[in-house]
Protein 1
Amino acid sequence: MTNPKIYDAVLIGGGVMSATLATLLNEFEPDWSIKIIERLDDVAQESSGPWNNAGTGHSALCELNYTPEKDGKIDITKALQINEQFQVSRQMWSTLVTRGELPEPTKFINPVPHMTFVTGEDNVNFLRRRYELLKAQPLFATMEFSDDPAKIFEWAPSLMVGREKDEVVAATYVEQGSDVDFGAMTRFLIQNAIDNGAIVRLGTEVIDLRQRPDGIWQVATQVRSGANKGQKNVTHARFVFVGAGGGALNLLQKSGIDEVKGFGGFPISGQFFRTDNPEVVAKHQAKVYAKAAVGAPPMSVPHMDTRVVDGQKALLFGPYAGFNTKYLKEGSLLDMFKAIRPGNIPTYLGVGATNIDLVGYLVGQLAASDDKKFAEVRAFMPEAKREDWRLITAGQRVQVMKRDADGKPVLQMGTEVVAKADGTIAGLLGASPGASVAPDVMIDLALRCFPEKSAAWEPKIKALVPEYGKKLNDDAELAKLVQNDTAEVLGLAQIP
């Protein structure tokens, strides 16, 4: 009997994270054998799909949930971190475009200003203070603020037409924002991986993960569709990445690694209103974010987004949060129940007990009629007409539930890398900002799992991300230079 092939890396999930990691590994170790396993019949069909997310190039230019206020003080730490990470993304994407490994940028990224819009004295005061803090930072130096309705009309006419003249409003505006089609990007990057020798298996589900005594992982799979439906197989790998979006928690639990014990996942489903009416779309050329409702999960901040998918512009408004027990859009209602273990029951119970307002918010969202939901569109765009818009179901998001440093159960925003101590398996849990910061997160994951290769990989990282390791926000001249260099390649707005 011949020994089975042992892949250097098996990547579970055909989304932007696996696509990005495959790109990096091809750069770092061109001779490595890579296999990508996707349960659906095509890549980028879950959270990476263009209509399953808002396509915001998350750089904290407009998202208020990255600048929380506590005890009267606004914390901009998260905003600075995310913007730094997004600059890593822009550098890597620019390099790949220059090399011809990504196509004409308009096929996956387009310039769209980022705005924040608020109403009411308290919110206007908050936005002004936030602006003053961020404006002083080099990465946010182009941000503008106005509480003048005429100026806001210049930025986004649809926000102001039909609004009461005495309504107190304010907005910030950053011309250098972007809209990203992460589905298209994923497909391009995975095709590059195939061209470089990677094997991709579609319609194939990972059903179990086991590590042999010699450290090699056995990845058990079952074909879900096609002529070989039901066929089972085992793939062997030296390293496994679990980039299965909402499905990552269940798979990491199957692996039996200690590091995932105590983690849980809270699923949030969502809907958006969408319009493709050219007349409506032409009146709004921005991504505009507002403040979240009391009790809303962080990923449910209301926003009106210009989208560019396959060269066509559209508008999305939402999200409207919902709840079911699936961890994937094309998942099972048993997903959440399968994730419950003795070690994480206290986490689930603790998060539930301390997030009663979230439960109330979700109940309200589930009970809301379509007309009530559309009233929120009108809060942004007063003259919006119901007949121009339709509801679409967005991707499923799973927020991380864990214990913090003090042992307190928390519902965490953002993403978290979970890796076994020996570096042979790692997975990514959580959601936004996710795809926008994939290059930085995947570089960090690779270095964490292969620390012995950091010296050899450093020049290769800098070949992709020239200023990697530098905090651009600490150097105003460098921040402007890098942003303008990447803007020129990617076709985005320059900093004057």
Note: The longest helix spans residues 77-99.
Protein 2
Amino acid sequence: MSAGSLFADHALLPGGWARDVRLDWDANGCFTAVQVGAAAEPGVPRAEGPLLPGMPNLHSHAFQRGMAGLTEYRAEAQDSFWSWRSLMYRFALRLSPAQLEAIAFGLYVDMLEAGYTAVCEFHYVHHDTDGHPYADDAELARALLRAAARAGIGLTLLPVLYQTSGFGGAAPAEGQRRFIRSTESMLRLLDALRPACNAQGARLGLAPHSLRAVPPEALRDALAGLAAQDATAPIHIHIAEQTKEVEDCVAWSGQRPVAWLLDHAPVDARWCLVHATHMDADEYRRAATTGAVAGLCPTTEANLGDGLFDLPRWTEVNGELGSQAGHGVSPGDAAPALRKPSGGAWGIGSDSHACVDAAEELLMLEYGQRLIRRQRNVAATEAQPEVATAMWLAAVAGGAQAAGRALGGLAVDQQADLVVLDAAHPVLAGLDGPQMLSAHVFAAGRQRPLAQAYVAGRKTVDAGCHPLRAEAQRAFVQARRELLAGGA
């Protein structure tokens, strides 16, 4: 890796849009200078369009990309998340390490071309197909690490603790046999993975799968063990995704899931509450004020019929759409410093990967709010009336926090992760920076008007294409073909 510089006519900084911006980064891929109102100097590359901070994808089950689009048929009188889950279990039971790596490699290349520069991998397929550990207990996790390194995407690896099939300690189902780990086994796995994660700059955290899959004592012990290893590690959990989950939690504990978690776990800014779709008003207030990130996956939540997160209620804690969405920057101003979220933080993830596109996740999130309220431009704020700008900034800030990495935007001491919009693309041509981002989110359809992507200062996408795209696609198609031939 080497140091580098880039000049842009328009750049989206943490405080808003700025003109004539020069970015410099060091050999470690970290921004050392962000100069607003700079002159375009000979020898400094000029971006083909507006610069955006790269988007962290805060929730991914990579293997599920292999079954995307293959569950869209009616299997029961009333299909739901739970019937989809049965099909997913069948797919997961056939997956080999080589197939997982091929699918993840293809997915991560696609993510980079779609505006994501980092991913949080919620990894719960741990064991061999018979449910027994591999000779190397970390084999499947290492496959994900290799796939991310090969694609060039930043990674937060979140091994998943999964022990029971329901609230109250119900025994695991047969279809879950590849997921199950004791708390001690999980802590040993984290220890084993740490050197490999450190070697490629990946962040290691923990994901208690859900309250239904991790009994209270196991949750307590796992969190204590994680804190002893790394007190700053990110913690992600599925929570309140489905109404049945809420009902079952109330029947078990007398409390709704988010309320129970807040009363029994040290939820703070390290935590990502994935989905958190079904909360009452008090849960919204209490959860937002912890500083935890709401991990929203709008296209997957729509695909599974989960329901709609109430974004305005969540962000009202701050009175803003996230702490990063501020006013624009005038020429000559110093680049704004990053501010830490004080509550109501959120980010986006592609989850089951029925859709892999950062802009489309934002579009789906905003459109869901419009439909439920019968209003327009719901995610805009007084400080930032441009909806796409406000959402992009908030999602980058929340995604960086959830990833546990310095990915918070185009600012000094943050990693040089960025994407360049293609100003010559017909959807964007002739517009200014904010208008181009708005068109990218709300008018591009399934086109991707992205020119380049950089991860830690290294160009991973050029002219909209990853250099390993063809190879990645071949590997993905072959892995999926093998799985379907095996009856998945």
Note: Residues 319-343 have pLDDT under 50 and may be disordered.
Protein 3
Amino acid sequence: MLGLQIPEQSEALRLKIGYMTQKFSLYDDLTVLENLQFIGQIFGLDRALLKQRIAEQMTIYGLTNLQKQRVGGMSGGQKQRLSLACATMHRPELLFLDEPTSAVDPENRRDFWEQLFDLSDQGTTILVTTHYMDEAERCHRLAIMESGEMRADGEPETLMNNMGVNIIEVKASNLRALKERLIACPEVRSAAQLGIRLRVLIYQRVTDPLSGSLTHFPS
């Protein structure tokens, strides 16, 4: 990994890797500043570099006004930003994120992903695990796991093309009954309700899904 052998060079490898856990794992009884100092010391940053990196991370992740705040009293979004700041204190080449947005609101999710794109542009390779497919589509490459086995691997667009389906969305009344009728059609691979509409996956062999046999639902 990263040109190093495991386990012989595991200590050197550790200094090149960042990890953000799904469950918040920093110290609630320490302040934001104290957590950043502690993590920086763990990764062996000298005093001058540590001071510089703390100032940079606080600016990047909007923590400057919170530096004296004890972490236990922070919101989920603030803790998320602090976790990412700590995980990248040492500028890792490879960053592991375990369901990093599972406990935050949509606005914080969006801002978090903007920060990840910035890290990616700076050369960091990021490996994310997520159950949110809209988040997975943001990645350059996907690997889909089921029961511990990799079922698919490739770019999001390639995986969609390999499915051999087109997607349409339907607005109608009585969506539950409509869904049952649609999935009985041989042209339909699946249908899922999204609020007041249905997202329907139709096999690509159906050249015009809005006409022909698909519009004549089974009774």
Note: DSSP finds eight helices and eight strands in the chain.
